[in-house]
Amino acid sequence: MDWAERTHDVALVDDTGQLLAKRHITDDSEGYKILLELLAEYGDTAENPIPVAIETARGLLVAVLRTGKRQVFAINPMAAARYRDRHSVSRKKSDPGDALVLANILRTDMHAHRKLPDDSDLGRAISVLARAQQDSLWNRQQLANQLRSLLREYYPSALAAFAAWTNGLCRPEARELLKAAPTPARAARLTRPQIQAALKRAGRQRGIDAEADRLREVFRGEWPHQPPLVEDALGKQMLALLIQLEAACAAADNLAEAVEEAFPQHPDAEILLSFPGLGIQLAARVLAEIGDDRTRFADARGLKAYAGSSPITRASGKKSAITRRWVKNDRLNHAGYLWAFSALRHSPGAGAHYRRRREQGDWHAAAQRNLFNRMIGQLYHCLQHRRLFDERLAFPASPEATEAAAA
Q1: Percent helix, strand and coil across the chain, each to the nearest 5
Q2: How many Å apart are CA 141 and CA 167, to the nearest integer?
Q3: Theoretical Cys-Cys bridge with 9: which of 61, 99, 168, 310, CB 3.0 to 4.6 Å?
Q4: Cα–Cα separations (whole angstroms), residue 119 to 122, 296, 305, 378
């Protein structure tokens, strides 16, 4: 199937490559009905459904195709383009022709492509929430960076005042103060009670008096200023950007709550949370990318390659090089970086493994990637055998450490 936003092209071939049928269907219930009737006309049954190749893994069309036991293969568009050159050297392209190319990909090379995993509905729901929450965090950080850049142009006292707070500009105290005083001139006129009121509106409950005194002193310090008219205009621009940042912060918080509600219900949650360095949010991201179909990866090596944690060898003639993987699941790789970094502080074995790699000459990123490679292999084992993480088995003490402890 060659899919598009409003219409789709369908091509059906037999084992010899003969074109049996082609259709142009709409992206609605009527088009889906025509598609299913076409498949049924050529032998599609609930017990023996016709496999389908398509260049996407999402959407209502894919959801309709995935009902029952049907195998749906999401073909990478770059791979499909290479197959197109295999069938024609003129570089001609058409949507019906692309559908025929996709059909022949399954006919000749089905073994070389991976069908969509058979994840549970709960697992797919957690995947949606975890990815959305991660996207909202990235969006929030992008807006915070824009706001910081704007404040540097005319409001350095605000940056100095919020520097002592973790996630400074994303904190509700910072947003309340910026709304109360969008320009440094107005911030310098804020009274102690006004600052205290802003902190209370933001939900702060402790250290309000001391924090108000500190902020008041910073705002009333000696700072360079833009001309008054320019400063007022920049203040209005900042308030408009602040509205977007508040919406992004609210979205991130709401999605985080949704993940915390859904993830513990999954059967794999207990195993994932038993690993050091994995909390609910990070564990949900890992589950979102690996899924809960235990047949998806043939072995731990496949999962490690998918995560981008295992190295790759490039050899040609007398030349051979071992490098990091560039083709990988970027979301899982990002989660793995955070996982390994957190595990260093929560697992003595993980910390010892990291230090050992550094002593052998690895840079920080390489040592951390090696730790992630080891731990995701352990996760694969635990999920396959339904076992919780065991520090003693995961990182057994070396003979040197055992002798030192005995001495």
Answers
A1: 60, 10, 30
A2: 9
A3: 99
A4: 8, 9, 20, 21
Show the tokens assigned to 82.
């290479």
Q: How far apart are CA 64 and CA 32, in angstroms?
A: 8
Q: What is the pLDDT of residues 212-247, one digit of tens each?
A: 999 999 999 999 999 999 999 999 999 999 999 999
Closest to 375 in 3D by CA, of 267, 281, 282: 282
CA distance 182 to 387: 54
User: Measured between alpha carbons, how far is 344 from 354 in angstroms, rounded to an integer?
Assistant: 8
- Residue of 250, 232, 244 whose CA lies nearest to 182: 232
Hey, how many other C-beta atoms are within 10 angstroms of the C-beta on 384?
A: 12
Helices (H), 59-171: 60-65, 77-87, 95-109, 121-154, 156-162
Q: How confident is the model over 79-122, as pLDDT tens digits?
A: 888 888 776 766 777 888 889 989 998 898 888 888 888 889 99
Whole-angstrom CA distances from 87 to 2, 15, 74, 80, 112 are 16, 17, 20, 11, 18
The helix (H) or strand (E) run that includes residue 25 is: strand 19-26
pTM value?
Answer: 0.84
Q: Are 147 and 245 in contact (CB under 8 A)?
A: yes
Q: Containing H/E element for 383?
A: helix 364-385
Best CA proximity match to 215, nearest among 156, 152, 161: 161
> CB atoms < 10 A from the CB of 222, how many?
5
Look at phi and psi of residue 277 and say left if phi exceeds 0, alpha if psi is from -120 to 50, else beta. left
DSSP states of 349-377:
HHHHHHHHHHHTT--HHHHHHHHHHHHHH
